[in-house]
Amino acid sequence: MFLNGFIAVKEGLPYIIQGALVNVVVVIGALLLGCSIGLPMAIGQVYGGRMLRRIIGVYVWFFRGIPLLVLLFLFYFGLFSFLGLNLSAFAVAVIVLGLISSAYQSQVIRGAILSIPDGQLKAARALGMSDARAVFFIILPQALRLSIPGWSNEYAIVLKDSAVTYALGVAEMMARANHVASRTYQHLHLYIAAGLIFMALTYIGTKALNIAHNRLKIPGYTQ
Amino acid sequence: MKKRIVALVICATMVIGFGLASAAAGDKVFINGMDANYPPVSFIDAKGQPDGLDIMAANWIAKEMGFTVKHQPTDWAAIIPSLKAKKIDFIASGMSVTPERKEQVNFTKSYHQTIMMLVAKKGTDWNTEKAMKEGTRWGVQRGTSEAHWIEDNLLKAGKKFTLQQYDSAPLAMEDILNGRIDVCSVSKTSADEFIEKGMPIQILGRYGQPDDETAYAVRKEDTELLNMLNEGLDRLMATPYWQELKDKYGVK
Predict the structure, then answer these.
(1) DSSP H or E stretch at residue B165
(2) What is the pLDDT, as a whole number, of residue B119?
(3) Of A214, B21, B89, B123, which has the highest C-beta tally within 10 A?
């Protein structure tokens, strides 16, 4: 019984690990997409006008308020088909996780921006910097450093969420563990293997961001 | 300041939007949506390649008829929406022909009869009559012809057993062994496979569902592909290779 389980895991491992790479690519894509939308949104929410802040607020509410599985099906079978865009399940997984992540990341960055003392912006203005220059060269370099612990959290969440994309048929790790289990009937061992790989990936990612956080820290800087 | 920020937000969103739009595939490639959890009809082999009776048959037909086939594992409950949304081009994965499905898609000629059986854990005293009684816990794969048949003909007719739906037949089998369900409705092909793989399962017999015709499904408008698959099936079933395949995968 146990031996058969280990044989199934050993034999299925290359196939499952290819799935783990799919998860990692989905997560990297989603985090990059989320950051490139989330950063402008955070700036807009802190410094933008009332209308812009309201629009961003609704966007954040939408993507934080709807379950991932609903959004995946809504975009994959509903929205993109309606628009005539025939995107692959993989592309939809990256886009949906990215859009959700952008909502969360915007709040992480927004919090970081708000934690920078107001006096810094005033000082930059007094030195003759424009508002935009002051934000980009004084506020953001500090705020983004402060966002790293939040990103580390976001990485772990998106990584785990990426397993849900198997519902669309993305050939990620959970789907592949099921494929192997359907052939070998060793569900317990294969799910344990998938869980351990997810744990390893979570550890590697959060550790890397932790190291980045320490390396990028401004020496002697306290708020 | 505000204008610049607005412009920045719009630019960033657009660049990403266009950057992610993926390119379409070339012509003469057809994607087969497969249930990757349905051995021996369609599954993933030890090397990670799609395998099974229907997969090998589709490969043969593709070669014979001069197109390229790719097999895309797809969730069974969402397989017809996937076909209609053009995520896949046809379904060669042991699909039963049902009136409801016929309204949605076109089917090729039948190449196999799917016989539905009730199974239970080995050594228990379940039989098909006892299973119909109140309190029995039935399992079934979600979105299958048997799931619809049981709902329409047994539950709606007043049978009081509970029906538990699963993503795949192997997961339902797993729950029979776990003791969460008492009996499960599966194709005879699946049941034989479970037993051959050494699962402690026994076949109780038929529970009243008529045999299903099994065929490939295509979109209503794709008559060209439908004709090509029909022609391919004709040619395949005329060769000894068809019987070899059925013997190899233990499909009667």
Answers:
(1) strand B162-166
(2) 97
(3) B89
Query: Could you give the residue ranges of the DSSP H alpha helices within B98-222?
Result: 99-104, 128-131, 145-150, 169-178, 188-196
| Contact between B22 and A15 using a beta-carbon 8 Å cutoff | no
pLDDT in tens, A176-209: 999 999 999 899 999 999 999 999 999 999 999 9
Q: How confident is the model at residue A169 (pLDDT cuts 50, 70, 90)?
A: confident
Q: Which residue of A has its CA nearest to B177?
A: A185
Rounded CA-CA distance B67/B57 in Å is: 13
Q: Closest-CA residue in chain A for B86?
A: A86
Cα-based angle A62, A71, A82 (whole degrees, multiple of 5)? 105
Interface contacts A/B by beta carbons within 8 Å: 121
pLDDT (0 to 100) of residue A162: 97
Is the CB of residue B14 less than 8 Å away from at least one CB of chain A? no
Tokens encoding B145: 């012809």
Give all strands (DSSP E) within chain A, no chain letters: none
Per-residue pLDDT tens over the stretch B20-73:
433 333 458 999 999 999 999 999 999 999 999 999 999 999 999 999 999 999
Q: What is the mean pLDDT of residues A99-120?
A: 95
> pLDDT at position B24, please?
38
CATH 3.40.190.10 fits domain B116-210: yes
Which domains occur in chain A, in start order?
Answer: 2-107+146-216 (1.10.3720.10)
Q: What's the average pLDDT block by block, 10 residues per block, for chain B (252 residues)?
A: 54 47 57 95 94 97 96 93 93 96 97 96 94 94 94 93 94 93 96 92 95 97 96 97 96 87
Please state, in angstroms and rounded to a whole number, the distance separating the CA atoms of residues A79 and A92.
Answer: 11
Cβ contact, residue pair B170, A131, below 8 Å: no
- Chain A positions touching B76 (Cβ under 8 A) are none
Contacts of A139 in chain B (CB under 8 A): none
Quote ipTM for the complex. Answer: 0.82
Nearest to A47 among B5, B12, B86 (CB): B5
H/E element holding A46?
A: helix A2-47
Contacts of A179 in chain B (CB under 8 A): 36-37, 43-44, 73
* Cβ B50 vs Cβ B42: under 8 Å: yes
Residues 6+ apart with CB under 8 A from A183: B39, B43, B44, B45, B46
Determine the CATH number of domain B29-113+214-249: 3.40.190.10
